[in-house]
Design goal:
Layout lengths: L6 E11 L2 H6 L5 E11 L6 E7 L8 H11 L3 E6 L20 H15 L3 E11 L1 H9 L2 H7 L8 E5 L5 E2 L11 E6 L7 H13 L4 E6 L15 E7 L5 E5 L2 E4 L14 E6 L3 H19 L3
Parallel strand pairs: 3-4, 3-5, 5-6, 6-8, 7-11, 8-9
Antiparallel strand pairs: 1-2, 2-4, 10-13, 11-12
Length: 300
């Protein structure tokens, strides 16, 4: 029963809905937006470490509640931020242009600021754990550039964890990150967000002197930690797996193959990908991530 929360709290998160160009240029004239965050507190009386979970393009799916239970069971709080409902969205997997890829960056900073002020949470032990689009947002939120532009509260995560993130885009200063380890968990056969760009990104971080590592998993297609999906299948989904996107100047994302501004109508954008769970890979990745968090937080 240690995986049951002692209390659940719902908190509003005041943020903005921004385009990628606005995030990259530091333009704060986006639409004011209120999101919801669900905080599940572990069964302990002292100030708790906390993991902020950031969902992917399909919204909060079956894997997230399992993560919450397992995080609570190890003695940490889990906070799930819903980046979609407050924006009138349920999924963007088939139309990624409906929300900027970097919109979650500001959401993460606003949620970190909220958590750091709560009396139940230890502000020095908050980690960010993102999945797919949320994993990309988590990695970008570790960039020093965005902390300067968008994080006036100055709350820095103790660590950043990303499951199968999209790493097809190179941003200006993307290897300058705030202090704190980065861990990426990726399935080897993933054809939604392939492992090769993620491995290259982690390699650049290591070369820049950062504590970063990638853990890979045989048989792990996209969403391999989903406990309700026993096998991956080919489904409609927008993927930039065949694209290489570069920020050539602040706010300008360019298709490297054409030199023109990138759009989701570009021929490199794929329309199908394999998505689904793998029990063995999912269990291994959860074990590895939870062991890392236990060590980080000094639990167990």
């Amino acid at each position: 029963m240690d995986d049951l929360p002692i209390r659940i709290e719902l908190h509003p998160v005041q943020t903005l809905t921004l385009t990628d160009a606005q995030v990259l240029r530091g333009e704060a004239d986006g639409r004011p937006t209120t999101l919801a965050a669900m905080l599940s507190l572990a069964q302990r009386a002292d100030r708790q470490p906390c993991v902020l979970l950031v969902h992917g393009s399909g919204g909060i799916g079956a894997s997230i509640p399992l993560w919450v239970r397992q995080i609570n069971a190890m003695g940490a709080a889990a906070c799930v931020i819903d980046g979609f409902s407050g924006r009138g969205l349920t999924s963007v997997s088939q139309d990624q242009a409906r929300l900027g890829r970097l919109a979650f960056v500001l959401d993460i900073y606003r949620a970190l600021a909220l958590l750091a002020e709560l009396p139940a949470i230890d502000p020095d032990r908050i980690a960010v754990l993102g999945f797919s689009r949320g994993g990309q947002g988590a990695l970008c939120s570790a960039m020093a550039r965005f902390h300067r532009m968008w994080n006036p509260a100055g709350v820095r995560p103790a660590a950043t964890l990303a499951f199968y993130p999209d790493c097809a885009t190179r941003y200006i200063e993307d290897t300058a990150i705030v202090p704190g380890p980065i861990r990426v968990f990726h399935g080897i056969p993933d054809d939604m967000n392939p492992i090769a760009p993620a491995r290259a990104h982690v390699g650049r971080l290591v070369a820049a002197g950062h504590d970063a590592a990638l853990l890979d998993y045989e048989g792990g297609h996209h969403g391999f930690d989903n406990p309700l999906s026993p096998a991956a299948s080919l489904v409609p989904a927008q993927s930039v797996r065949d694209c290489r996107i570069e920020e050539r100047e602040p706010g300008l994302l360019v298709n490297a193959a054409t030199g023109a501004p990138f759009t989701y109508d570009d021929p490199c954008v794929a329309r199908q990908a394999h998505i689904g769970g793998n029990p063995a890979a999912g269990a291994a990745a959860r074990r590895d991530a939870l062991h890392f968090l236990q060590s980080l937080f000094g639990l167990g």
